[in-house]
């Protein structure tokens, strides 16, 4: 008797659960739970500074106040920083969209915690909240109108992939990757939701445009994103007429302009190290004859000595900031000349892309530690909590450019038939899906290309973060769509026989 | 040491005494032979250790950096030094040292205990004492019968040795020696008020210099006094040193400069940056050819220390192997690096045991004053370079170098400049060097030794030798062919078969395409005729 | 030299050789086309021989009526031909529809044989045998149930056959009726045209050889009798018969002026099933006839068998192998050091493929268009890969059947 009651109660609980908790909601709840466990439960997880923090920190009114900050580079992440109380002469006008989020976090911190000390958990909370909403929208876009069971399965996949600590650890750091992650996901989700007509079109269009803008403005390397989104988003114009078309057109134009502006205007802190590597770990590395490569740029052939050299070596022949390099080396090449060189030497371009592919599947770079000094872990220790996906990803996928090509072609081939069918039946909304997928793929590939051109093969895993995110997004969308079509096929078969 | 010839006049002695005398003499001779160190190190004694104390680093004042300057001077003199704040002085510490230098940079000392401590120990151990700066402790001031006064706030000028009227410090009130017993060194003058005072005085091991700043003139003046304070009998000469030479410096300019300096009769030193990778590239060989050429043009080669990358993070790197590799490479190309050039900071801070690991091959060093202040507060300098040079910027001293060619220098001085960026710069510098009164000496003329595990590189009286065999200096620059297999080409399987096969296929396909083209033309015509009627 | 290298060498060699063979065939085929354009239409002289047209049908209710109606409308003396529809074990409305059609044309030679699972249901070959028993013509013509032949189709075929005693069979051309239904049908259209103008026309020009396409052909009765009917076990009964006809010393000629229009599969799933069936059947036939290569008497057929053999086995395995190796190489799992990969060569080969195929299309009205050109290019990457999948699956299915000794079943092509 008791078992019968409990059984019925369980069934009722399950049915009300599935009625009220959509897969998207489930995914969101789990993401919040797992993310919070990683970020807000001791030992806190974050990401150590590799030297890049000070620029964005000082530009936004924060400063290092940890007693031994220098000793914690690479090994430990620092949780607390000082908030500048007086005039900050380093204050740069919004360096990038990341500054926006930092300032909001600082404001929250001042409100709730302390006006003098900034605890990075405020930023972590802000990012986690945004990220959860992004996950919610993403899962909703693929599971809307899907039966609950496969829907929950998809939600679990989403949590496994995107709840990974390799991703969420960035929220406790001042790397721009946190913004990149959230905005790319929102971009994909809003695009997919537009395709399915789930929410109000204008709202989704606004989300699409804003996330693309913030993504583009996050760092100078993301300039191509604006251009790609602006161009590949053109089919959006066909979804609806009149007012929507005008708004969409304006947004896309704005994105295009932002992309160009970001390239031209964001002060490229002349990062000499990247400039150095762009040549020594780029054309000079892959060329069979470095002197010929140098001649192509009009640089003295003696610089062949620097071929393959990494500036992170302790003892080097020349200081990367030295005037002799400024004069006769750096001034002779830039982003466009190197791009031109790779286009003219496709074999070397392929070699470089192979190198890029080798690091493209890392979510969190090797070198940075995850814990605070106070947590008592060894220097540079990585967090292991819920890192199944990041570890799997790194171990599983073949890290070759051929595989990247296969992935891109497979994704396009997968969505092509539905695209053709949609075009035939004049369903422009559904036809938007393929351009959206292509857009995301191109964004990922552009990140790869920009990384190689901008800094050769040095520091690739950090520079290619955008690729690794887009790879996961496409993989997830593809998996979800496979599950959806199989469920539909099964339903149809079942319906036919019945 | 020369053996006393036995046939010198000896007083007539009894036979047994003669035998005893012979025995004693032979024993002494034998002993002196075995105890005699290697001929090239004839003047060497075990390095002396000196304690350097300071009360303030004088940051922001004219004396800023004088602690580091003093450390450099001590290094040039081949001394081991320990740098320490005077507050941290422990009683009895001086027992391990042969002398004390105190940089009194604080015009208002707080009268702490430490000063008494060291003064007591000094007197107890009877060690030589050098005091540079304010307030010589009374015990020593009495010895020197010292009376000091404060000058007006105007620019002082120092004259010593070949220098005349070189600016000393800033235009501010500074102490000067109005009266004292003891040997005076140099003279400091305040032209507007006409006052004159010695730069420093020395009496029985106690030396006092009221004003010592970091700067070429001040350092050279201090060197004069240090020489006597240490009882050093060696003198030195001036050398011309060019640094900032990289493998990608304009090689033609390097060659032209060597030629020009040779034609002007000016010996010089090239301090060249090391290369640790890609050393078999043609570019490297061209570099080495030019260096060899410079060597044959009365040039001396110094190996410069590598750049320490600030971006390296926590890393260790085997600097010993790397430098040894570079030196061996030079040796294999018949280039004899006689010394090491390095920023003083590298040596003084000794991060990662740089001095012991990377510089221990050399006996001669040229330590360049660092452009970036680094406020060293303590140091233990145990690696010494017995035949080093004091480095001063050439254009800091040259304007004040008057015609005193007879004056000898207390220490080898390297007057350095960065290598030129273009021919015009070289020519204008050359004009000045030819016309000024500084006589540059050839570093090769002295005895120098650089040693790695594989090679022993030395110079003596103008000849260079590698592992004992002298090298000829008449090589012209050889042309280096640019053919170099940068990469081992992967052995391609069946290459010929495939190339021929591909060729055949391409021909066949092209032929077929032509045939198809013809068909296409016919076909279109046929089509039109048939279907478009 | 690793194993991967060796495999690549073999694969590359096979692919290129077959490509060359196909070039030769295209040239030959096109020359034959020019010949045909130059010669006038074949004319029936004397009395028209009596022709029995057989139409095997299984659940073809949707298409059988238009087929029979176009057969009834043929330009051939009405009393000199009969139409025999073998409605084999159909569970749809075919019987009723045919019956009503019969009643409407009661004066014509229209025979409908309805069989059930007992009397029939053993496949197309068996249906043909049943129809043959009822037939009385000295010539047998066969049309598929979804074909709508042109008015003069039969006339040309018969005229051509009667002109030459050495001909055992004359085959006509088939075109795609639902060409514009989907991208797949566009591809099939291109494929069928290029196949006929290359393989059929080319082989006739060079070796006086063709294979029976299963529809729109005319055959001498004596041959059927001599052969003892159709092989019930064979899934690809047309290829089987062709070989046996060669063995008898007759030739099979291609007469492109005789045209029939047929319905091709419109979805990939249906197409896949149909092609797998053909592939399996062809493999069966080839395997059965391999010994013929070694018999001197059948010299003329040797080429055909070798050709088919190479297409199905060698080319297929080579293409599959090289594709797999390419993918593995792209994923970094396998390493080949073959020097020969010249991008220029492969680009030229692709161009060759496109141009060659396009040439075969210029023979037909409405096919000389730019859209065809890019469709051929698209075909190269999509359709051809699918074909490889079909052939591979067919091979796999064949071996599976061999292993489990399954019986040949007649799978029907879905109609729309």
Termini separation of chain B: 121 Å
Distance between the termini of chain A: 35 Å
Largest interface, chains and sizes: A-B, 37 and 38 residues
Question: SSE order of chain A in H/E notation?
Answer: HHHEEHEHHHHHHHHHHEHHHHHHHHH
Question: How would you characterize the overall build of this protein?
Answer:
Chain A is built from 23 helices and four strands. Chain A is mostly helical and 498 residues long. Chain A has a domain at 272-361 and 397-498. Chain A has a three-stranded antiparallel sheet. The radius of gyration of chain A is 24 Å and the shape is globular. The model of chain A has no long low-confidence stretch (mean pLDDT 84). Chain B is elongated, with a radius of gyration of 33 Å. Chain C is α/β, with parallel strands linked by helices and 416 residues long. Chain C has a single domain, classed as Spore Coat Polysaccharide Biosynthesis Protein SpsA, Chain A. Helices cover 55% and strands 13% of the residues of chain C. Chain C contains 13 helices and eight strands. Chain C has an eight-stranded mixed sheet, with helices on both faces. In chain C, strand 2 (81-88), helix 3 (94-104) and strand 3 (110-115) form a beta-alpha-beta unit. The longest helix of chain C has 36 residues, at 3-38. Chain C is globular, with a radius of gyration of 22 Å. The chains are: A mainly alpha (498), B alpha/beta (533), C alpha/beta (416).
Provide a brief overview of the structure:
Chain A is mostly helical and 498 residues long.
């Amino acid at each position: 008797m008791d078992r019968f009651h409990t059984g019925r109660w369980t069934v009722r609980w399950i049915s009300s659960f599935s009625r009220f908790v959509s897969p998207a909601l489930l995914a969101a709840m789990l993401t919040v739970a797992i993310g919070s466990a990683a970020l807000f439960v001791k030992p806190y997880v974050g990401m150590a500074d590799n030297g890049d923090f000070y620029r964005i920190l000082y530009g936004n009114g924060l400063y290092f106040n940890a007693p031994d900050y220098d000793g914690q580079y690479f090994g430990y992440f620092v949780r607390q920083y000082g908030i500048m109380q007086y005039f900050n002469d380093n204050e740069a006008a919004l360096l990038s969209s990341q500054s926006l989020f930092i300032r909001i976090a600082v404001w929250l911190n001042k409100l709730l915690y302390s006006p003098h000390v900034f605890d990075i958990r405020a930023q972590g909370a802000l990012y986690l909240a945004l990220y959860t909403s992004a996950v919610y929208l993403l899962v909703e876009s693929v599971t809307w109108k899907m039966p609950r069971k496969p829907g929950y399965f998809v939600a679990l996949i989403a949590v496994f992939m995107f709840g990974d600590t390799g991703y969420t650890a960035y929220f406790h750091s001042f790397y721009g990757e946190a913004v990149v992650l959230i905005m790319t996901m929102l971009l994909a989700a809003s695009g997919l939701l537009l395709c399915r007509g789930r929410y109000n079109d204008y709202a989704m269009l606004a989300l699409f445009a804003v996330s693309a803008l913030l993504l583009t403005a996050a760092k100078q390397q993301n300039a191509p994103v604006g251009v790609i989104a602006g161009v590949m988003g053109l089919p959006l114009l066909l979804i609806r007429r009149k007012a929507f078309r005008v708004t969409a057109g304006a947004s896309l134009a704005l994105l295009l302009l932002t992309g160009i502006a970001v390239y031209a205007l964001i002060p490229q802190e002349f990062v000499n190290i990247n400039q150095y590597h762009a040549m020594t770990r780029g054309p000079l590395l892959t060329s069979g004859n470095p002197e010929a490569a140098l001649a192509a740029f009009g640089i003295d052939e003696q610089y062949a000595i620097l071929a393959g050299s990494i500036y992170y070596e302790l003892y080097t022949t020349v200081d990367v900031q030295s005037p002799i390099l400024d004069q006769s080396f750096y001034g002779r090449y830039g982003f466009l000349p190197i791009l031109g060189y790779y286009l003219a030497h496709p074999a070397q371009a392929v070699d470089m892309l192979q190198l890029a592919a080798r690091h493209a599947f890392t979510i969190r770079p090797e070198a940075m530690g995850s814990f605070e000094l106070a947590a008592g872990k060894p220097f540079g220790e990585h967090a292991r909590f819920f890192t199944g996906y990041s570890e799997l990803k790194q171990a599983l996928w073949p890290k070759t450019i051929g595989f990247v090509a296969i992935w891109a072609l497979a994704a396009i081939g997968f969505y092509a038939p539905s695209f053709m069918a949609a075009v035939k039946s004049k369903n422009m909304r559904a036809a938007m899906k393929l351009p959206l997928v292509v857009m995301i793929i191109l964004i990922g590939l552009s990140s790869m290309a920009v990384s190689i051109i901008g800094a050769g093969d040095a520091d690739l895993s950090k520079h290619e973060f955008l690729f690794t995110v887009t790879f996961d997004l496409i993989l997830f969308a593809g998996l979800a769509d496979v599950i959806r079509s199989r469920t539909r096929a099964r339903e149809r078969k079942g319906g036919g026989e019945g | 040491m020369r053996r006393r010839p036995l046939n010198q006049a000896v007083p007539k002695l009894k036979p047994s005494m003669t035998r005893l005398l012979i025995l004693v003499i032979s024993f002494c001779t034998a002993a002196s032979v075995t105890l005699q160190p290697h001929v090239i190190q004839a003047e060497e004694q075990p390095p002396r250790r000196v304690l350097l104390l300071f009360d303030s680093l004088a940051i922001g004042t004219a004396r800023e950096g004088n602690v580091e300057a003093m450390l450099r001077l001590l290094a040039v003199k081949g001394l081991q030094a320990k740098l320490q704040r005077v507050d941290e002085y422990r009683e009895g510490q001086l027992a391990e040292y042969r002398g004390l230098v105190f940089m009194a940079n604080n015009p208002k000392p707080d009268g702490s205990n430490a000063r008494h401590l060291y003064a007591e120990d000094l007197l107890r151990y009877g060690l030589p004492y050098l005091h540079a700066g304010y307030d010589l402790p009374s015990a020593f001031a009495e010895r020197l019968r010292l009376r000091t006064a404060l000058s007006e706030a105007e620019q002082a000028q120092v004259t010593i040795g070949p220098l005349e009227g070189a600016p000393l410090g800033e235009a501010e009130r500074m102490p000067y020696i109005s009266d004292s017993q003891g040997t005076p060194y140099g003279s400091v003058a305040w032209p507007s008020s006409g006052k004159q005072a010695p730069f420093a005085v020395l009496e029985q091991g106690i030396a006092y210099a009221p004003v010592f700043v970091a700067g070429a003139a001040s350092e050279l003046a201090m060197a004069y006094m240090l020489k006597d304070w240490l009882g050093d009998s060696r003198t030195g000469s001036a050398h011309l040193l060019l640094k900032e030479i990289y493998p990608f410096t304009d090689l033609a300019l390097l060659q032209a400069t060597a030629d020009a300096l040779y034609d002007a009769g000016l010996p010089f030193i090239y301090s060249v940056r090391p290369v640790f990778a890609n050393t078999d590239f043609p570019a490297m060989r061209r570099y080495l050819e030019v260096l060899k050429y410079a060597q044959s043009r009365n040039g001396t080669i110094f190996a410069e220390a590598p750049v320490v990358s600030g971006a390296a993070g926590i890393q260790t790197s085997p600097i010993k192997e790397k430098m040894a590799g570079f030196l061996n490479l030079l040796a294999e190309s018949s280039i004899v690096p006689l010394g090491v050039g390095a920023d003083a900071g590298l040596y003084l801070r000794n991060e990662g045991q740089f001095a012991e690991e990377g510089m221990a091959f050399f006996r001669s060093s040229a330590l360049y004053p660092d452009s970036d202040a680094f406020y060293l507060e303590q140091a233990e300098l145990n690696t010494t370079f017995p035949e080093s040079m004091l480095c001063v910027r050439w254009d800091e001293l040259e304007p004040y170098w008057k015609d005193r060619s007879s004056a000898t220098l207390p220490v080898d001085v390297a007057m350095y400049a960065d290598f030129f960026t273009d021919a015009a710069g070289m020519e204008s510098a050359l004009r000045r060097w030819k016309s000024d009164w500084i006589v540059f000496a050839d570093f090769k003329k002295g005895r120098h030794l650089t040693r790695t595990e594989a090679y022993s590189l030395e110079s003596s009286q103008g000849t260079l030798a590698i592992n004992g065999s002298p090298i000829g200096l008449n090589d012209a620059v050889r042309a280096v062919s640019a053919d170099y297999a940068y990469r081992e080409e992967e052995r391609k399987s069946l290459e010929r078969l495939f190339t021929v096969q591909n060729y055949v296929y391409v021909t066949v396909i092209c032929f077929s395409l032509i045939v198809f083209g013809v068909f296409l033309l016919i076909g279109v015509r046929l089509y039109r005729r048939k279907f478009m009627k | 030299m690793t194993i991967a290298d060796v495999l690549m060498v073999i694969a590359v060699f096979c692919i290129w050789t077959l490509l060359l063979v196909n070039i030769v065939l295209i040239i030959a085929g096109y020359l034959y086309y020019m010949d045909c354009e130059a010669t006038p239409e074949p004319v029936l002289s004397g009395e028209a021989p009596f022709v029995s047209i057989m139409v095997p049908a299984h659940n073809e209710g949707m298409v059988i009526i238009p087929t029979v109606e176009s057969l009834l409308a043929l330009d051939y003396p009405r009393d000199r031909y009969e139409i025999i529809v073998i409605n084999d074990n159909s569970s749809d409305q075919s019987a009723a529809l045919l019956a009503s059609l019969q009643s409407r044309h009661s004066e014509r030679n229209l025979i409908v044989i309805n069989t059930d699972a007992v009397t029939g249901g053993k496949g197309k070959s068996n249906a043909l045998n049943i129809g043959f028993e009822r037939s009385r013509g000295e010539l047998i013509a066969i049309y598929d149930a979804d074909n709508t032949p042109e008015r003069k189709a039969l006339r040309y075929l018969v005229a051509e056959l009667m002109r030459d005693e050495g001909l055992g069979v004359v085959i006509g051309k088939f075109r795609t009726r639902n060409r514009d239904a989907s991208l797949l049908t566009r591809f099939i259209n291109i494929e069928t045209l290029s196949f006929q103008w290359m393989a059929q026309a080319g082989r006739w020009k060079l070796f006086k050889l063709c294979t029976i396409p299963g529809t729109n052909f005319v055959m001498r009765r004596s041959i059927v009798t001599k052969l003892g009917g159709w092989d019930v076990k064979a899934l690809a009964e047309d290829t089987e018969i062709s070989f046996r006809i060669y063995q008898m010393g007759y030739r099979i000629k291609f007469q492109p002026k005789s045209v029939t229009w047929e319905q091709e599969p419109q979805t990939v799933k249906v197409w896949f099933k149909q092609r797998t069936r053909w592939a399996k059947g062809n493999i069966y036939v080839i395997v059965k006839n391999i010994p013929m290569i070694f018999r001197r008497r059948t010299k003329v057929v040797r080429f055909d068998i070798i050709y088919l053999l190479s297409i199905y086995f060698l080319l297929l395995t080579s293409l599959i192998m090289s594709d797999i190796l390419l993918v593995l190489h792209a994923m970094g799992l396998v390493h080949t050091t073959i020097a020969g990969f010249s991008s220029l060569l492969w680009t030229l080969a692709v161009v060759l493929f496109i141009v060659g195929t396009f040439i075969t299309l210029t023979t037909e009205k409405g096919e000389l268009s730019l859209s065809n050109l890019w469709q051929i290019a698209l075909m190269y990457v999509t359709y051809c890969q699918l074909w490889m999948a079909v052939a591979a699956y067919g091979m796999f299915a064949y071996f599976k059947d061999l292993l489990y000794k399954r019986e040949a079943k007649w799978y029907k092509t879905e109609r729309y």
